[in-house]
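Ticket reopened. Same input as before:
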Amino acid sequence: MAKKTGEKYQAIINAAVRVIAQHGYHNAQVSRIAREAKVADGTIYLYFENKDDILISLFNEKMGQFIATCRDLCNKADTVEQKIYVLVHSHLSQLANDKEFSVVTQIELRQSNPVVSKGIGEVLKQYFSLIDDVIREGVEAGVFRDDVDVRLARTMVFGTLDQTVTAWVMRQCKHDLVSQVDPIHNLFLNGLIRK
Amino acid sequence: MAKKTGEKYQAIINAAVRVIAQHGYHNAQVSRIAREAKVADGTIYLYFENKDDILISLFNEKMGQFIATCRDLCNKADTVEQKIYVLVHSHLSQLANDKEFSVVTQIELRQSNPVVSKGIGEVLKQYFSLIDDVIREGVEAGVFRDDVDVRLARTMVFGTLDQTVTAWVMRQCKHDLVSQVDPIHNLFLNGLIRK
DNA sequence: GATTAATGAATGACCATTCATTCATGATTT
DNA sequence: AAATCATGAATGAATGGTCATTCATTAATC
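Engineering reply: fixed in the latest deploy. New output:
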């Protein structure tokens, strides 16, 4: 049971993103998602185990896409500097183009239901290791300082991007995200200090 | 009504931190917090408006302390580099010393009840402007590059620290947080690139 | 004895999930 | 080709469990 394909499956996931983004996680009742997807309440349970499963599936589906795009673009870049640039750019531009999903990831899905966290954690790890690979390459190629700790550098990259997107969402997605790409890239590579 | 002082007020707040950290936000029923605080369910409502108010008060009380400590330590530092160091150090060391509060801030309180978010946002802003002040000082003193965007640099600093603590909490607070202070400080000031 | 603090059982709202029933589609039989 | 049957998708009203909140009552304090 709970077949995870088909037109209605997608419809429910898209409805869930919309409902959660607009009404908040707390008012995202299953029946509201069903109504938005133009489906009966019970139909939800033909496609999803339970409410948590909707959230996990939603995140995995969309985040999976997100990571795949990042990875593809990264592979096309030649230098390590460019790869970092691509990471920053694709993170920000993809979320800038999907405000509803951004609201869901940055605000609504940060709740602590352990089942949901676990489901989400798996996909996030993939993203982390993509960033790790780029940084490791930079260290091994001698472009980055050789005392750079890969995990820490990744934490800085992800932490900064994540916080940038959160601030944008908090301010109603009003300003332009992509214009931050260059300054962020510069800050990562050169730091704060004037030389 | 809802007097926000006294021994029981503190007892309830401390109980809430413990209950939320140990059982998760979802299982932090008011009656459980009451039991942990050795107080009757109804007593909670003599000190707090409602459940949200417990969370907001908890965050404001503890985070207020946190910021005051950061500010004091910062004021004692002479150079801008040292002030950045102090920010990194006091952020990490304070949270390292209060694992239960860390779990609450990094995981359990990231849920999206708009009332709670709003209550929390106010205090967070104070912390942001403390970081902003330090960075602005660095730019004005000519220690930092003069094209450094203050808000962006703050986003990097906060985003990195926040993500560092989150990763620590996720891995059961096992490794040493404070040992990351030097590498993070170095990364902020000098960036990734080998010179 | 009056005022204030504390109690905890009872209430009622909320909402995820279930399941008896209906509907749609296609196969099989006559 | 009409009639019958079979399958499983879809429905949505009903259920049941969970808690935040209330408030009548009791205890403490001045």
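Chain B touches chain A through 47 residues (CB under 8 Å). The first helix of chain B runs from residue 7 to 23. Please confirm and we'll close it.
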